[in-house]
Amino acid sequence: MKPSIQNWESLSFASWESLSFTSTLYLRPILDALLEPAPNPLRDELRLGLQEALVNAAKHGNRLDPHKVVSVRHAKADGYYWWIVSDQGDGFEMPASCTCLLPDEPLDYSGISDCGRGLYILHQVFDHVRWSKNGKEVYLAKQLRPVPRIGLVSPAIFFKVIESWWHRWSPRSVRST
After folding, report:
1. What are the residues whose beta carbons fall under 8 Å from the beta carbon of 165, sequence distance 6 or more?
2. Rounded to two decimals, what is the model's pTM?
3. Which fold has domain 8-173?
């Protein structure tokens, strides 16, 4: 069960790490860097999910334009791993017929072709998946273990706050790989 968290100020991040890369499908070094802090039992699952998010950003968002970059901000806090993947494309709009991805709906394999295999994988791997309003960023969260504290921020609330902050972050803090 996902925690119900009321006070978003209580969520503390020691620091966000960032990396960016030109639009390419050669993702092994990027994935290795992103997965380095993850525990071994989660790495294969997270590799699959992050690869889908990065491929979507590079291929569908940036259309593999070598002049455009994919940026990833990531952090670990309060029992979650967090990733924000952004591209410089035109944005993504969730298909209206994509009912297989709703978190409280029974699994419906018939809708996977309408939604896309990558979107289906994202929702299976991560506990929380959300897109920014402009569709150029996907926010991903994976819970490491149940959080024992009360009063933490839910990923849904946190993503709204991060979405408003994301546009204020300086691209100078992004390191290139």
Report:
1. none
2. 0.69
3. Heat Shock Protein 90 (3.30.565)
